[in-house]
Amino acid sequence: MARKIAILGGTGAEGSGLAYRFAKAGEHILIGSREAARAQETARLLRERIGGAAQIEGMDNLSAAAACDVAILTVPFSGIVALLKQLKSVWKPGTIVIDTTVPLAATVGGAATRMLGVWQGSAAEHTKELLPADVSLAAAFQNLGAESLAGDDPVDCDVLVCSDDEKAKQAAFELASKIPGARPLNGGKLENARIVESLTALLIGLNMRYKVHGAGIRFTGIPLK
């Protein structure tokens, strides 16, 4: 049976962009949202855009989390506590969660180029505290711009994957490899997400200063595989 990938917060720009890329690559996608009707509408639009036998369903976040094998968190940082507390009892043992969250000050009305201080060190480490022990976690995709994901051109960005769990790291690597132009790189332990998340604020600033929308990161000196 093919795995099911839930995009929680999947009606937003980042979530729908990832859903589009993964569904186009043949993955079975569950769009999750606070409102099932919004998720179903987003799923319908994506199916129409991709055509063929695209497997995309829309449902509320709780139903998507309960049914998935891999969940990708794309909700704003300000909403992550409420969401994960709601989902705590529905995760299946062995579920893999991939956190794309960045604690930008914009989520609480501040500047998009500034980071919020997170007691645990990073949004990913904060998420780890809110997940059951039998759910694996990786942090990835924080530096991919929503506009780049929404298009069809290859993205110009490496994807740093940080995790203390090899199974979760491998799942994130596999998914990143399905996005044309993206190159997954081993970012080390989950605590390194502190560095990766802060790069997002830097990229937003570069986009603003150079009046572009797709600034990304590339690391040189690492052979392509």
Q: Kindly provide the radius of gyration, computed on alpha-carbon positions and rounded to a whole number of angstroms.
A: 16 Å
What's the count of strands?
8
Order of helices and strands: EHEHEHEHEHEHEHEH
CATH fold field value: Rossmann fold
* CATH architecture identity: 3-Layer(aba) Sandwich
Count of DSSP-assigned helices: 8
Shape: globular
List the quaternary state of the chains.
Answer: single chain
- In this structure, how is the largest beta sheet organized? 6 strands, parallel
Overall pLDDT score? 96
Structural class: alpha/beta
Structure explained in plain terms:
- By secondary structure, the chain is of the alpha/beta class.
- It has one domain: 3-Layer(aba) Sandwich (Rossmann fold), CATH 3.40.50.
- The chain is 38% helix and 17% strand.
- The chain is built from 8 helices and 8 strands.
- The strands form 2 sheets. It has a 6-stranded parallel beta sheet with strand order 3-2-1-4-5-6, sandwiched between helices.
- Helix 5 links the parallel strand 5 and strand 6.
- The longest helix has 18 residues.
- The chain is globular and about 40 Å long.
- The protein starts with a strand and ends in a 15-residue tail after the last helix.
- The mean pLDDT is 96.
